[in-house]
Amino acid sequence: LAHIAEHDRGGLGQALSRLHVNREQEHVRPAGYSTDLERWIVRCRRWVPTYVVEQRRIPRADIEKWEIGTDDERKRVVFPVRDETGMAVGAALRAIPGVTPPNREGKIPKYFNLPGFQSTDYFYGEQFVDRTLGRGRLIEGPTSVIAASRVLPNCLGTFGASTGMNERRIE
pTM score, two decimals? Predict the structure, then answer.
């Protein structure tokens, strides 16, 4: 993945789509898989729009804990997604009202996932689950998980209405 240029629009997503490994398979990742995604996350964390702090009311401590940032190219808030081991596996990108430009169809989807990220294979917040508690709460979306996790343990979120493969993991 070292060949992905920093200016390559969508290059990271295209690379991830080629490297997606189904979670039911052995967790074998090519060298550099997580490294390029981690670098992208770090670049996105350079600044956070006031929208996150003022309108969504996410405290600075949570911005740091959840590694929230901004994708300058797409003009969207970045919510990095990590698996239960803490490895970066993708990101959910949220529109910034009044900033995010429309897509080719003239629409501005509220959320979309980093291209190549299989959101039905993961829950948002997996890296913070305390398995000794034995139970958790499944709620909707990254911002809801962040808010709820301040007062409730083991909050996880989906990326839309479908839980896909995760339905087998919910008990």
Answer: 0.77
